[in-house]
Write a structure and sequence with these properties.
The complex is a heterodimer of chains A (232) and B (79). Chain A has 232 residues and is α/β, with parallel strands linked by helices. Chain A contains 5 helices and 11 strands. Chain A has a single domain, classed as Class I glutamine amidotransferase (GATase) domain (Rossmann fold, 3-Layer(aba) Sandwich), CATH 3.40.50.880. Chain B is an alpha+beta fold. Chain B is elongated, with a radius of gyration of 16 Å. Classes of the chains: A alpha/beta (232), B alpha+beta (79).
Chain lengths: 232, 79
């Protein structure tokens, strides 16, 4: 498959994503944000980082980038799009995903490992995973506190659009626990999808958890997400 | 024409900056100050033939970029 990774000024996880898909033998290409052609991808990735310096609001200025109309069109045609960390913030700002990522409720930038469980197995990145499967991966963000209005939250929950939820290592969800839900997200939401399921956003970095060589427990547990997205 | 846009978090939306400032002040003998909310003031020039046109332009830039209306309100002042 052909994977297009969109690079904004300030993106810093694009190479991790290129590496992740490269490991799986996929054809990868970087797309600079000033381009207006995604170069016929099968999958589009908006990587993590601090696009446009996070000025104004995280992800806000990226929605004005020349590449955005092509991303919107690809997503509206049903093309698989994933936003990781800053990519998730961008998808929310563009309206391709509902809600917004507020500053972490305890004010700190969080750079640590988290556990999150798979709640929806119908998206490209979760279709070969098991419901309840726990993935361990790093987070690195100041604004990851998922927030939306009560009606949207009810719709997300009702329609199964919550794809990933923060949990303990054992898979226990506790919204009020700062260890299992460190940024204070509503309903411990770590990732969501659009109603069609082709656009996915999450705050944790599965692309940093694809090889055992990095040494921590569950170090390659994010790999299954990338494998899923390229599986038939 | 000069425009000022005030962007404020909606009531009830967590404002961690406000809380941090409030806590800092309370620890420094300013406990008389409570309910701090931090917003943004954005100022710029608008090229428009009259105030209505200017207001229209500023309104659309607020909707498109300057405020995220899920969490923020905005107020426009011209002149």
């Amino acid at each position: 498959m052909k994977i297009s990774v969109v690079v904004f000024p300030g993106s810093n996880c694009d190479h991790d994503v290129l590496h992740a898909y490269g490991l799986l033998g996929q054809e990868v290409q970087s797309i600079w944000h000033r381009e207006n052609d995604l170069k016929k991808p099968d999958i589009v990735v908006l990587p993590g980082g601090f696009s446009h310096g996070d000025y104004l609001r995280t992800g806000a200025l990226a929605k004005l980038s020349p590449v955005m109309p092509a991303i919107r069109e690809f997503a509206e045609r049903g093309g698989p799009v994933i936003g990781i960390c800053n990519g998730f913030q961008i998808l929310c700002e563009t309206g391709l995903l509902p809600g917004v990522l507020l500053q972490n409720y305890r004010m700190k930038f969080l750079s640590q490992f988290v556990h999150f469980k798979v709640e929806n197995t119908k998206t490209p990145w979760t279709k070969t995973l098991k419901k309840g499967q726990v993935i361990t991966a790093p987070i690195a963000h100041g604004e990851g506190n998922y927030f939306t209005d009560p009606e949207t939250l009810a719709r997300l929950e009702g329609e199964g659009q919550v794809v990933f939820r923060y949990c303990s290592a054992a898979g226990i969800v506790d919204h009020s626990s700062s260890s299992s839900n460190p940024n204070g997200s509503m309903n411990s939401i770590a990732g969501i999808c659009n109603s069609r399921g082709n656009v996915v956003g999450l705050m944790p970095h599965p692309e940093r958890a694809i090889e055992k060589i990095v040494g921590w427990v569950g170090a390659d547990s994010g790999r299954a997400m990338f494998e899923s997205s390229v599986a038939a | 024409m000069r425009a000022q846009v005030f962007v404020r978090l909606k009531p009830g939306v967590l404002d961690v900056q406000g809380k941090a400032i409030e806590r800092g002040l309370a620890e420094n003998d300013f406990s008389a100050i409570t309910n701090i909310r931090v917003g943004k003031l954005i100022e710029f020039d608008v090229a428009a033939t009259n105030a209505d046109k200017a207001h229209q332009i500023v309104e659309s830039v607020c909707q498109k970029l300057l405020a995220n209306t899920i969490i923020e309100n905005y107020e426009i002042k011209l002149g």
